[in-house]
Write a structure and sequence with these properties.
RNA-binding, alpha+beta, eight-stranded mixed beta sheet, elongated
RNA sequence: GUGGCUUUAGCUCAGCUGGUUAGAGCAUCAGAUUGUGGAUCUGAGGGUCGAGGGUUCAAAUCCCUCAAGCCACCCCA
């Protein structure tokens, strides 16, 4: 990933997250395999076919982290953060690994920016997470982001709905694709993820979870929608959005980008996971967060507006290598003023060095030859106007800054 | 995990049915009246031909395995 994009994305992430009171956390790159199996779910795609798993010398099974939420919940308890004022707000930037067949926008190693707010069930935190992610895309000026929203209920209303869904599909089992028949058994909600043509029609008439939420879930969902509306964030309700990870409850959302075709259009997603802590064997603790793919966002940024690498303000060079140290010293005084100064070393010809200065886009060239050195001067050349003046050493800094501010 | 394709210089690629020192463009560097620029011209450097094995007198070229990547699925970031 080109550095300028990484800098822009991580910088915006840090500014925004810290602006909302989130603190940075880094967790290990790999964890006990069991952590992900229990968190993400046995039947999920991640666990069933996408993990980089290996054995250590003690024959323990370890896995390169395929996602960030489970390790952070683990760290939350291991570090005793449940004793801090709740919710605990954390953000992270780092590499993740999935062993899927790679293709455009999907890599074995990819980078994510994510946040988690753990320890408080308030729907305001759902709103906060969504707003934070939305603002991040806004700060980067990606444009074209669509927010998809849904609620998938909780342990109170989802089991009943799951049976309702099974009742609906049961008479049609024979018509379903093989994959979907598997999901019917293991995780009926994910029947909605199917894009198989023969499953489409059935999906349309299937009962929708939003119509079967229990009272608390319905109220929470209502509060999230009102919060987003109050913040003037446009969203699309999508009853088919169920997400691939088992730990989600209630609010789920996804950021999609219109320019990315087909299946790789998801730039990020998240939701509430009030059951995750318990699934990991800790005390039941609510949480909400999102993860955004930085590699994919970089693809969008690159298409939208190519970023140029930083350009030096001053290109400093000596005609004779004997004067290099003098030039190096002058460059230092300019850097002390906050300028970006490149010293061109060696005995190359003057025109060659100026050619490099021009190619790198330097606004000003600082030249010193034997004559200037003798008189304690330096030539300040405006690369754009192609004009230059010879000034005394003490005049170098003001002359250069003036040339830079001229245009 | 399924199907198809790709991998040759820093980058983009050529290299026909296996044959000697593997090429081009761009980029880099150097020269073109020895202190003044992004153009032009000339020249130079740069490659374990993705990795490993096999067939053959001979492999970038044929076969196998693996890896990375691309496209479409599946699904996700």
């Amino acid at each position: 990933m080109p550095q300028p994009y990484w800098d822009a994305m991580s910088g915006a992430a840090k500014d925004l997250a810290e602006g909302f009171g989130y603190l940075r956390i880094e967790t290990p790159t790999f964890e006990a395999t069991e952590l992900f199996v229990r968190a993400v779910g046995e039947a999920s795609d991640i666990v069933s076919k996408e993990m980089f798993t290996f054995k250590d010398r003690g024959d323990r099974s370890l896995t390169l982290r395929p996602e960030g939420t489970a390790p952070i919940v683990r760290a939350y308890f291991d570090a005793g953060m449940q004793l801090e004022p709740q919710p605990v707000r954390l953000y992270y930037l780092g590499p993740y690994f999935r062993s899927e067949r790679p293709q455009r926008g999907r890599f074995h190693e990819f980078r994510q920016f994510g946040i988690e707010a753990i320890g408080d069930p308030s729907p305001l935190l759902d709103v906060e997470a969504i707003v934070l992610g939305w603002s991040w895309f806004g700060a980067l000026d990606t444009g074209g982001i669509h927010l998809l929203l849904n609620s998938i209920g909780d342990e109170v209303c989802r089991p009943a709905y799951r049976e309702l869904l099974r009742d609906y599909y049961r008479p049609h089992l024979a018509e379903l694709s093989g994959e979907s028949r598997m999901r019917f058994e293991k995780n009926p909600l994910r029947l909605f993820d199917s894009k198989e043509p023969q499953d489409q029609e059935l999906k349309l008439k299937a009962p929708r979870i939003v119509d079967h939420l229990c009272q608390p879930c319905a109220e929470a969902f209502q509060a999230v929608r009102e919060g987003l509306s109050a913040e003037a964030i446009p969203f699309t309700l999508n009853p088919e959005l169920v997400r691939g990870l088992d730990y989600y409850t209630r609010t789920v959302f996804e950021y999609q980008h219109e320019s990315l075709g087909g299946a790789q259009n998801a730039l990020g997603g998240g939701g509430r996971y009030d059951g995750l802590a318990a699934a990991l064997g800790y005390r039941t603790t609510p949480g909400v967060g999102f993860a955004i793919g930085l590699d994919r966002t970089a693809m969008v940024l690159r298409e939208r507006k190519p970023l140029a690498p930083p350009v030096p303000d001053v290109w400093a060079l000596a005609v004779d290598p004997k004067d290099e140290l003098y030039v190096f010293h002058l460059a230092g005084t300019l850097r002390a003023r906050g300028l970006r100064v490149v010293v061109d070393p060696g005995a190359a010809r003057l025109d060659a060095k100026l050619r490099k200065a021009a190619k790198r886009g330097a606004r000003v060239a600082l030249l010193v030859g034997p004559e200037e050195r003798e008189k304690g001067e330096a030539v300040v050349r405006d690369m754009r106007l192609k004009t230059q003046v010879s000034v005394a050493e003490r005049e170098v800094v003001p002359t250069v800054t003036q040339a830079l501010s001229a245009g």
